[in-house]
Amino acid sequence: MDEEYDVIVLGTGLKECILSGLLSVDGLKVLHMDRNDYYGGESTSLNLVQLWKRFKGSDKPPAELGSSRDYNVDMIPKFIMANGALVRVLIHTDVTKYLYFKAVDGSFVYNKGKVHKVPATDMEALKSPLMGIFEKRRARKFFIYVQDYNESDPKTHEGMDLTRVTTRDLIAKYGLDDNTVDFIGHALALHRDDRYLDEPAVDTVKRMKLYAESLARFQGGSPYIYPLYGLGELPQAFARLSAVYGGTYMLNKPECKVEFNEEGMVCGVTSEGETAKCKKVVCDPSYLPNKVRKVGKVARAIAIMSHPIPSTNDSHSVQIILPQKQLGRKSDMYLFCCSYTHNVAPKGKFIAFVSTEAETDNPESELKPGVNLLGPVDEIVYETYDRSEPVNECSLDNCFISTSYDATTHFGSTVDDVLNLYTKITGKVLDLNVDLSAASAAEE
Length: 444
Description:
By secondary structure, the protein is α/β, with parallel strands linked by helices. It is built from 14 helices and 19 strands. Helix 1 (about 15-25) packs parallel to helix 9 (about 235-245) and helix 1 packs across helix 14. It starts with a strand and ends in an 18-residue tail after the last helix.
């Protein structure tokens, strides 16, 4: 414990484990500590008895729910975009050899009280019941523009500089109505609110292209993949990676107090009377509460069911996005459903999450629009948790703090935070130009 390290990582949440793996691969000497005796931190996976203890205060769940150990319930459930940055990180680090993925069955959007499959290409736009016949033609033209758009080929820009033209202006050129804009912005480009409309259109076009490329990758019903046995496998896979490259792990270390020198720079971490010296600390917000501020709170429901979500073509794994406008809210609502086909529940059982950025203190009434889509549930629990973000200046204290997980059911902002922190810690950008076919061996 008395050694000196380049970096000490506190907490084994997914973000911290990815960073620990990346920094170890870079040749840094890493010590990884956690006050818990399990991996995953806030993003851990629970079996049924653990779930019951946490939400019901009892360790005796109903027998009809099946065997406790057949459950792997992710506390921060998120699907992985098949062509997205997280898959590139997995391939870059070769972590795919520790994991098996399976495609997610469906991606849906809530519109005018109904659930519809998200159209992602010009052909799907023509078939979608989301739009009338004339709107379909307009949408198809817009989708073709997006599919053909190539940042480095001005011939595909149709005279528009998308780094300057706003998304609102680009969409106006195609005359799309508000309902179409709603599903394009929130269910395809995965924006969390409507601010994107007044920002440069290039970001939205890139996000739409990523969705369509990810969808094409498996020819499935969605652009997403998800690990067998849930996301709890991911932190452990990155922990194994770190260990292979010489990283040291210590779980169940109480307190983990970060130490600072007279200049206010981090100089070590103390636990059980011993101090490990270091140049930098990476941690989640709970380890340095005086260097973060609360920025919001997430309300969510976790349900166990014996059937797929209605109106999703019997999908055993599915995301449904309920755009804010459809609900008269300031932020979107998300449904995540997974089942025994991804080995996260016993045969015949489904786990569903409904989550949103909390706007009231009553999660039950706030989440009602999403919960109503689930159909009958065997059991349901509700909770809220605070979201924090760092307020420190990394260059002044060498503390690199992750932001809390948001309400979304996909990995976009999570990976952005990791890559951003990686650049701040190392001063370089992670090269994610990898051969995506290298992951195919890890998929089923």
